[in-house]
Amino acid sequence: MKTPLSGHSTVMSSKDQLWCDLTGEAAILNLKNGVYYGLDTVGSRIWSLIQEPRTVNEVRDALLEEYHVERDHCERDLLTLLQRLAAEGLIQVDDKMLA
């Protein structure tokens, strides 16, 4: 099932996973299916940001402050990654968001 995401969606890592930092990259174990996932440096930064509920826009804005990237490119890539994480059950998405 595809989870719809927008800039106003609130995202957070799911409770059914374990993760660790591997020198700037992240390794994640989905406890429901036993599958390991890996994230590069930017993906790992996104993962660390969503350890607490944040809107997609808040995550995007944090990335724009930290990396030299065009806003549209950042937003497109962020939404793509978050869609994949949601499809794998690694994040929770709430469209009833925090204001």
Overview of this protein structure:
With 99 residues, the protein is of the alpha+beta class. It has one domain (10-91): Outer Surface Protein A, domain 3, CATH 3.90.930. It has three helices and six strands. The protein has helices at residues 41-49, 56-66, 71-87, and strands spanning 10-13, 17-22, 25-30, 36-39, 54-55, 91-94. Strands 5-1-6 form a three-stranded antiparallel beta sheet. Strand 3 and strand 4 form a beta hairpin. Helix 2 crosses helix 3 (71-87). The longest helix has 17 residues, at 71-87. The protein is globular.
What's this, in brief?
This protein is an alpha+beta fold and 99 residues long.
CATH topology heading? Outer Surface Protein A, domain 3
Report how far apart the termini are.
Answer: 26 Å
Overall geometry: globular
**Overall helicity:** 25-40%
Low-confidence blocks of residues = none
Write out the strand line-up for the largest beta sheet, numbering strands in chain order.
5-1-6
- In the CATH classification, which architecture applies? Alpha-Beta Complex
* Sheet/helix structural class: alpha+beta
Total of helices:
3
List keywords for this structure.
single chain, 99 residues, alpha+beta, Outer Surface Protein A, domain 3, 3-stranded antiparallel beta sheet
Helix and strand arrangement:
Elements: E1 10-13, E2 17-22, E3 25-30, E4 36-39, H1 41-49, E5 54-55, H2 56-66, H3 71-87, E6 91-94
Antiparallel strand pairs: 1-5, 1-6, 2-3, 3-4
Helix pairs in contact: 2-3
